[in-house]
Each structure stands twice: as structure tokens, then as C-alpha cells.
Write a structure and sequence with these properties.
Distance between the termini: 58 Å
Radius of gyration: 19 Å
Order of helices and strands: HEEEEEEHHEEEE
Strand content: 25-35%
Number of helices: 3
CATH topology: Immunoglobulin-like
Oligomer: single chain
Number of domains: 1
Helix content: 25-40%
CATH superfamily: Cupredoxins -  blue copper proteins
Length: 164
């Protein structure tokens, strides 16, 4: 009987977690690449993006092909300045974990340690390619940025305008 009560309580308390998605974004949602209206290539260099700004339309689905021509890992993250500031704090915490691993307490590659499951973000190793497909939902300015510690501050950020 205790097991039934415990299972019932556990199910009841997990309902709110199941009812709401872990990630929700006012500016849109991830989409399958097959649904893309167009493809945009974004080059990631060391402390820059090319192009530096992009325009999309509300309701448009864009497949971003990300090419890291830099010497270090970079990310492409969609969000507003507040989201990027929060994400940068998370990345600093991850870097602290990496520093701990570098002292002999682990042997994972840098990209493996910095991976995270944010649907609006893609990490790309040097010399590699990545993709992110997104459907934009409302007319608002956001940014695409690299939140690897110090990269945003060094200018690795671009403006993405969502128009009508």
C-alpha cells in the first residue's frame, strides 16, 4: 500500500513538470530543417560573425548553417541581452568545471564539457559545421551571440531583427 501511495504522490507532483516545456521562448521555437523557408550561412571566426546582422520575418522558418573558421570553440545562441547574460553565467560555471577537470580530475574534450541542451544554442568545434533551424514567432529584435566566456564581450554578437 505504501508503494501505491508513494507512486501516486510522485505522479501528482510530476504533472506540472510534464505540462510545461523545459524551454520556452517568446521569439519562436526550434523546427525541423525540412520545414525551413530558407537557409542562411553564418561564419563564426575568432570574435566575430559574418554576417553581423540578420533580418527574418515573423512566421518564417530559417535553417542556420554555422561554419566555425576560428581556432577555438564557438556557439550560436538566439536570445535577448538578458538571456545572453544569464547564459554567460552558466558558461562561466561550466568553465570552472573544465578548469577542475584540467587539473587532472577528468579527461573530457572541451566541447564535451561545454555541451548543454538549450534548443536555441549550438556549439561548434573549430573547423566544424553545425545547424540550428528556428521558426520566428513575433516581431522583436534579438541577438545571436557566442556566450563562451569573454567572447560576447569581445564583440562576438550580432543583431537579428524579426519583422512583419
Amino acid at each position: 500500500m505504501k508503494h501505491v501511495i508513494f507512486a501516486g504522490a510522485l505522479a501528482l507532483f510530476s504533472l506540472p513538470a510534464l505540462a510545461s516545456p523545459a524551454h520556452s521562448f517568446a521569439f519562436g521555437a526550434p523546427a525541423p530543417a525540412a520545414k525551413a523557408d530558407r537557409t542562411v550561412e553564418v561564419v563564426m571566426g575568432d570574435m566575430y560573425y559574418e554576417p553581423r546582422s540578420l533580418q527574418v520575418k515573423a512566421g518564417e522558418t530559417v535553417r542556420f548553417v554555422l561554419v566555425n573558421k576560428g581556432a577555438v570553440i564557438h556557439e550560436f545562441s538566439l536570445g535577448d541581452a538578458v538571456m545572453h547574460a544569464k547564459h554567460q553565467k552558466e558558461m562561466i560555471a561550466m568553465q570552472g568545471q573544465m578548469d577542475h577537470a584540467a587539473m587532472g580530475h577528468g579527461n573530457m574534450q572541451q566541447g564535451q564539457r561545454m555541451k548543454h541542451d538549450d534548443p536555441n544554442t549550438v556549439m561548434v568545434e573549430p573547423g566544424k559545421r553545425g545547424e540550428l533551424t528556428w521558426t520566428f514567432s513575433e516581431s522583436t529584435p534579438i541577438e545571436f551571440a557566442c556566450n563562451v566566456p569573454g567572447h560576447y564581450q569581445a564583440g562576438m554578437v550580432g543583431r537579428l531583427t524579426i519583422g512583419q
